[in-house]
Write a structure and sequence with these properties.
The protein has three helices and seven strands; from the N terminus they run H-E-E-E-H-E-E-E-E-H. With 123 residues, it is an alpha+beta fold.
């Protein structure tokens, strides 16, 4: 009985730890993005100011309503809402002077991909 409980617990922990992962690679460029647990993560080889401007422009182009914008030299965050009033969070972190990590928190991988693709095209 104890063995069954331990094996069940190990199975549950391994399934939770692995999560759902989708990797998207743009064949035209060297960019790739990973969608895991509702967050799309990617790295752009641009400084944070340039990526922030592209994100702002993309939000306007996609017709999203901006709720909050915060930016400094190391991090930036844009909170927006879509037509269904779902929250979208775009977080930017300056990894180096010329590399920025982009995180897009949204419920759907398709929405995250569309937002990221729009940002990437603006760069």
């Amino acid at each position: 009985m104890v063995r069954r409980i331990v094996l069940t617990a190990l199975l549950a922990v391994s399934l939770i730890g692995s999560g759902c992962t989708t990797t998207m690679i743009n064949p035209g460029t060297d960019s790739s993005a990973t969608y895991r647990f509702g967050v799309l993560t990617a790295e752009e080889s641009r400084d944070i100011a340039t990526v922030y401007q592209a994100a702002e422009s993309s939000i306007a182009d996609l017709g999203l309503s901006v709720i909050q914008k915060v930016k400094d030299e190391l991090e930036a965050k844009i909170v927006a809402r879509d037509a269904q009033d779902k929250k979208i969070i775009i977080e930017l972190v300056s990894m180096t002077a010329s590399t920025t990590q982009v995180k897009i928190r949204v419920g759907s991988p398709d929405k995250a991909r569309r937002i990221y693709q729009t940002i990437h095209d603006k760069l």
